[in-house]
Automatic annotation (TrEMBL):
Top class in the EC scheme: hydrolase
Cofactor section: Zn(2+)
Key words, A-Z: Aminopeptidase, Hydrolase, Metal-binding, Metalloprotease, Protease, Zinc
Domain Peptidase M1 alanyl aminopeptidase C-terminal: 548-858
Lineage per the UniProt record: Bacteria, Pseudomonadati, Pseudomonadota, Alphaproteobacteria, Hyphomonadales
Name of the protein in its database record: Aminopeptidase N
NCBIfam families, A to Z: pepN_proteo
GO biological process: proteolysis
Catalytic activity line of the entry: Release of an N-terminal amino acid, Xaa-|-Yaa- from a peptide, amide or arylamide. Xaa is preferably Ala, but may be most amino acids including Pro (slow action). When a terminal hydrophobic residue is followed by a prolyl residue, the two may be released as an intact Xaa-Pro dipeptide
Sequence ranges assigned to domain Peptidase M1 alanyl aminopeptidase Ig-like fold in this UniProt record: 440-541
Amino acid sequence: PVSVKLEDYTPYPFEIDSVSLDFSLELEATRVRTKMSVRRVRPGEFVLDGEGLTLNDISIDGSPLQVSDYKIADNKLTIADVPDTFTLETDVTINPKANTALSGLYVSAGRFCSQCEATGFRRITYWPDRPDVMSRFHVRIDADKATYPILLSNGTPGKAGDLPGGRHFAEWDDPHPKPSYLFALCAGDYDVWRDSFTTMNGDHVDLGVYVDKGQADRAEWAMESLKASMKWDEERFGRAYDLGVFNIVAVRDFNFGAMENKGLNIFNSAYVLASPDSATDADFEAIESIVGHEYFHNWTGNRITCRDWFQLCLKEGLTVFRDQEFSSDLRSRPVQRIKDVMRLRARQFAEDGGPLAHPVRPQAYGSIDNLYTATVYEKGAELIRALTVLIGDDAFNKGMQIYFDEYDGTASTIEDFYSCFEKASGKDLSQFRLWYAQAGTPEVTVVEEWDEAKSELTLTLSQKTPPTPKQDKKKPVPIPLRAALLDGKGGHVEAEGWQDGETVIVLDKAEKTVKVNLSKGSARPLLSINREFSAPVRVRRDLDKAGLLKLAAAETDPFNIWDCFQSLAKTEIFRLLDEPQSPPDDALVSAMADAVRLNESDPAFAALLTVLPDVGELFQDREPADPAGLDSARKRLRKAFAEALAGDITRILEQPSPTPFKPSAEQAGTRALRGAMIGLTGALGTPEAASQLKSHFDSASNMTESLACLRSLIPLPGKARDEAIETFYARWKDNPLVIDKWFAVQAGQGTAEDARRLSEHPDFDMSNPNRVRSVAAAFSMTNLAAFHAPDGKGHEVIADIIQRADKLNPALAARLLTSFEQWKKLEPKARASAKTVLERLQEAGLSKNAMDIVTRALD
Ligand code: HT7
Ligand code: ZN
């Protein structure tokens, strides 16, 4: 496939200071009239992007152009001879109703909405659709008044009024120059949850969350989250909102989580709508974090945008870092850190270790939609976090202020961003930028040597990054490792040059030796390293089971306590896989259970201690990988763990669930531990367990526990399970977001036949990404034992769904295809089946997006 290369970047030859867009909305024939003021700033051709547009008229300075004056080819309109300053007017027709790709202007539930990032604007009108062309937008929308009483766009509202024939119009002005990918338009009949916010500068902002009719009260949490985000960005980064209006619109059909369009965020309704009975704590938490994420883009993405799409991590990695910090400040920092690392290891480490691995800032791409990856987002955020450790919080905060002040209103690069931190810290960060150019997860090996006579600990640290596609050789990167010396009694040991027994070791060479001098006669301390997961690396240490248990008991960093138990559980699962006749290690299981009990006063943390590494993560350390074998070894350990906690399960579940329901971190923590106990009840797998789960399901007062019971019942065939599936469906059949969960819990634990049956259910809807993902992504990304079953049936069912989805929505199909990314690591039978299926898909002639993934996966 043709690829776009970073090295080919050239600035656009023209500036377009302002643009007027005039929309006449009709479902199948919307008219878009565009008037732009163009000014040449450097030599070069005048070329506009345009895709699927019917051109009705085109003129320069009021004179219509003849067909011979311009050329339309390969989705580009080129006008050979243009004056240095001119006004270009175009008039095009588009068909939003036929737009199933959900990019550009489309229709969801009878209402108009748009998605322009990355290249959707060119499906609306002719335009230089690249992020470094920034313009002031004036928008006028006219539409039938009865069907579309609310007409929204970016900025602040202007004139509005009635028109003949039952139509009306509204105008919107955005004073901030912006790239086309931040343009948005929504039109339809909505209910609105309204509120307001006064900024730190005393400016009044009208806030609105627009949702389906009758759903306004389900928008309250999104609104609370928005106000909390606005306040947090003022307090933490000194950044206030800059318009008099901020609106959020919820749509059911959306390819992603949400979109940060200037002043008019558009959200997947899954990340807006929540009520205590229908949403889980995870839903409330996700809404808070995504509302925050999109709001934070106002400064990191909108006011300072990206020069080109290779710089995507500049806005995404930084904004993920900001939303993680927001959640940490509002909830529990250690719990947030553990959840973020779980996500990173599950998604980004897997990506980095497979054929789709790419640097955080890639050098080339085949299809821009496929650049929205865990590496760009999650690893991008980790690099910002590692930077804070490397230069310290003060220099980081100072650097951020320099960035906001110096680059406001510009389309910037990673180099621009890092120049601010070089200024703030006085450090040369050129080696740190290597992190952006190299794919792969570095492996850090730590070897310790203790000299009793000298009371000296010698640490030999080394790093190695495995080869990734098209990048065989890797250079050392600076790895900031937070470290502490533990005394084994809950405290730290002082050492020369360390502060309260803590320091940051920067491993910036292939190998480095660090001498740690303790006061004479000191006992050997235990080393705590990569505390709080200060760098996105894999750490290899020469610690056996007893050593890890001792370290877990001595640790003062909650992240590392959790991580010690993860390592212990992983090793034990591998042992159980290799020794199928051997029972789980009693001593280990009771240590795991003790850790849960010991931390019960922090129930959210205790709940995380019950989660064993999932098959996807185990998979990364076993080649060839046998997902079914790993799954059954994992289940054996989990069953023993549940048996060790049997008394605690009963005790915890006998206590009442907190009432009245609040989505607070405190209540969510209590429910998380209760949910964990429900999960472990299922792991016991006994008939009594099924009936206990069913009675808990029947009496559950909130969705978190109700869904946890259903999830636990799914693998336990029988009447209790069947009744729970039916009751849940009957109760929630009119709530699509809850029915998505109903599909997902079944696909996430069923067989390939179950996944096929669900994909044939009358409520399965190929045109709705949430519903497709609730079956296809839940099955292929969370149920690896069934997806990669050696008979190949799992691969086939997903390939069939992908092929059907691709005809409607290539971005969705491409994302689902990434579930095959680990295929080369599979045991021979599943590997052969995956290869056959990928080759069949390649032969089938898929979309450009889907072909990009298939080709790279097979490479
Ligand atoms: N910046 C937004 C990205 C996005 C997107 C990208 C490709 C196709 C559809 C999309 N919808 C939204 C989301 C974000 O990171 O905030
Ligand atoms: Zn984002």
